[in-house]
Design brief:
The structure is a homodimer. By secondary structure, chain A is α/β, with parallel strands linked by helices. Chain A has three domains: 64 residues, Orthogonal Bundle (Arc Repressor Mutant, subunit A), CATH 1.10.10; 127 residues, Aspartate Aminotransferase, domain 1 (Alpha-Beta Complex), CATH 3.90.1150.10; 240 residues, Type I PLP-dependent aspartate aminotransferase-like (Major domain) (Aspartate Aminotransferase, domain 2, 3-Layer(aba) Sandwich). Helices cover 41% and strands 14% of the residues of chain A. In chain A, helix 7 crosses helix 11.
């Protein structure tokens, strides 16, 4: 009896509350008891139920009040659907690469090296020194700190042959990460609706940035030695494209490195076609049995626009990249960069420069080279033993990834899900293709946490493939 | 005799060098002496002249070699003109605001507060603490550090009246500065070629970001109390625009603050028109006789998208801004942000959060309020005394700027140039107008260096105006 009475009162009050403003005071227990012809205990039971449901709050000795909470009135954002319309440019679905995962899994999906491969001591002391300096309180120049510009130019200039003009500090624009550089380059050198050649497979972030700008991608197939110059030339001829995005050294995902001859052939084509080569030297610091030899160092005609990030090799928190461009293209890129981000934090620039100019940075890079090599070989050996049907087209001479082709009848969605059920996270290869994938691929990053678990991961991958 | 002989040899060698590859060895001194029928001293004099001019380098005991230098062959970047074509969207000319100037001038042009107005001690200790923490070595989540998201939400929620749902941490996206936010918002909520209402005058960086995206700007005149709601409604009706960019608190440049009634009227219009209000709360921390009261706090229907930067009040090196958006708009904004910048440095986010959660931050803001007030009044008094023809439409209740109307016959280019010749840098007002300026304006920033020189600056401005 009492229960149903209190239910009845609670129901009536719920209706009252739904139209009352937040903070409104409910009638007193005595008044409610009179109104609903019930005892004070029954009324208080009803109020407690409403309080538990979060509809009211009671302040002892004062009374009960309507609470302002989200659940009372779910907002209707339907009007936004009309205001937003369809997106101008469809974005590809999100990839697994940026996922954060719990500690008890074997994570082979990430895009960033694990902390133990970073120059932790250098980064911490650089940030501490930066905290004491001027850059932490001042605005940096639009194109970057001059000393950091000079460093990027000098690094690239190391590869410039005699007889060619090496890049100067004034050719460099410092960016808040290379992703910002990709967006800017696709916007300024290509443009919405315009065609751009791109390796296939290639970096998913470039595919994403191109989608955002609305660039029309022209895929050029790329194998372990890079794309075929004839394919590139044909694609330029057929589409009238004026730009080609590529990673000539340790390409993500397949680790391809172009030979000097191939690089020369591509440079010749790009020049003949009056086109830009957008060179993404993402793995400059991740050579293993080879070193990155940027094409941009061999070009002083402004055809190669060069992008190098320090985020992956210095620290994911030091979002600093250098862009090298010559001629009027640089002016247009700088104008876009300014309107997009104004300037890059001088503190981050100073910290990055501090790290890479310490003698210990070279030592770190040498040790990193060895560690990446051991990790790579450990994962390759384990896969060869336990997952022989996962085919590695070539052993990458640098970079962070193995690119494996799985049997053609593999259901990739099911494969990644089953691996994950056994606590091994892998990245399905589809995200790295600008169009339909020509096969079933997975990318395994060997710079993640806990390489000791690589054999176990390979066993699980092998079992899932076999099952 | 000897001189002219060596000149003749140098001239001949110069011709030879101009076609020789870099690194090519010159004939020996003996061979040259024979060829030009001159003594070895004359030949060496010619070689020294060429070395001084940077055309050759001599290696003692080895010989002389053609140097590879830029001046030998200026690069021809003409091909880029064809490859780049006309820019898709014309950018406005660069403004004076970002100029760096020598120390011996009176700089009233800048957009950023001078270092002595920043919480220097807090920033340095926050960066030092950050250098010891985890964020300096890890990747931050795409939408930002959860604690910083929660802080931005709570700050905005302080102004939310009872009965409305306050924003949650999940509604916040952390950005690498508010300029990045403007680009993203104009791209996602408006789009290329689409109309957007904008106050006139307004922040030049917003005009720049809109130009980059190719947004069609619909100026709405704004006076000391903000724009007239009837004008806004008419502009929505005539153009079919679905967005309005505004700075309702301490607008840049004219310091306008909307009354609660006007804010309510604009909110009603925006809702009726099914449109977004893009609220740029750039001066949230720069109240003087009033405080910023964001409209976004009074809206839980997703119509107001809110942007607040910490860059100007914490430090120009801490490029961190918070964006608050609700409903599907937030998802589209986040997707664009990711494709543009991936994520914001966790170290900068942690440092920003450290600063604004110290008790001393509140103390700093109180002292800042007083200092800005004194600086503002000092400059106003000096201008009233020395430059009475520079008309201040209203005393701003917050912000960093005075917006002065000069006599209509003022030649603005000449005025700024003559001020500059007398070492006073002012910003011509034209940059703040999305279309033709309706009068001659200058913006004077009273948060720059050396307020003691304000009277002198006012005297010079008065003299230039009178002369």
């Amino acid at each position: 009896m009492t229960d149903s009475s209190s239910d009845r009162i609670a129901q009536a009050l719920r209706t009252w509350i739904s139209t009352a403003p937040a903070g409104a005071q409910l009638p007193s227990t005595r008044a409610l008891a009179a109104e609903y012809e019930a005892g004070p205990v029954t009324v208080q039971q009803a109020l407690r139920a409403l309080a538990v449901q979060g509809l009211i709050e009671t302040r002892p000795g004062v009374g009960a009040f309507v609470r302002s909470i989200r659940t009372v009135r779910p907002n209707d954002y339907g009007w936004q659907t009309a205001a937003l319309g369809s997106p101008e440019n469809r974005m590809p679905p999100p990839t697994a690469v940026l996922r954060t995962t719990p500690n008890d899994v074997i994570a082979l999906h990430s895009g960033y090296p694990v902390r133990e491969l970073l120059p932790e001591r250098l980064v911490r002391s650089a940030m501490t020194r930066t905290a004491r300096g001027d850059t932490v309180l001042t605005q940096a120049p639009a194109a970057g700190l001059p000393e950091l510009q000079a460093w990027f130019a000098a690094e690239l200039g190391e590869g410039t042959p005699a007889g060619l003009a090496a890049p100067g500090a004034g050719d460099v624009i410092v960016l808040p990460g290379s992703q910002a550089g990709l967006s800017t380059l696709f916007r300024t050198l290509v443009g919405t609706g315009q065609p751009m050649l791109i390796e296939s497979p290639t970096y998913w972030g470039a595919i994403l940035a191109a989608a955002q700008v609305g660039v029309r991608l022209i895929p050029v197939p790329s194998g372990p030695h890079g794309p075929d110059p004839d394919d590139i030339d044909r694609a330029f001829a057929q589409t009238g494209a004026r730009a080609f995005y590529a990673q000539p050294n340790f390409a993500n995902p397949n680790g391809a490195q172009w030979s000097p001859e191939r690089a020369g052939a591509v440079l010749d084509i790009v020049r003949e076609r009056g086109a830009f080569l957008i060179e993404d030297d993402w793995a400059h610091d991740f050579g293993i049995t080879s070193s990155s030899t940027p094409l941009a160092a061999r070009d002083d005609t402004g055809h190669v626009v060069y992008l190098r990030s320090l985020t992956k090799s210095v620290s994911p928190a030091i979002r600093v990249a250098g862009l090298v461009a010559r001629g009027p293209a640089r002016d247009r890129i700088l104008a876009d960069t300014q309107s997009q981000s104004m300037y890059v934090s001088g503190a981050l620039q100073a910290a990055a420069l501090d790290v890479v100019t310490q003698p210990a940075w070279r030592t770190h890079l040498r040790s990193l080279r060895q560690q990446l090599g051991s990790r790579r070989d450990l994962l390759i050996d384990a896969l060869r033993e336990h997952a022989p049907s996962a085919h590695l087209e070539s052993v990458p001479a640098g970079g962070l990834n193995l690119w494996l082709r799985l049997p053609d009848d593999t259901d990739l969605v099911r494969f990644t899900r089953e691996c994950e059920a056994q606590r091994v996270i892998v990245a399905a290869g589809d995200s790295w293709f600008p169009a339909e994938p020509p096969g079933r691929y997975v990318r395994l990053n060997y710079s993640g946490p806990n390489p000791g678990a690589f054999p176990e991961a390979a066993e699980i991958i092998g079992r899932v493939l076999a099952g």
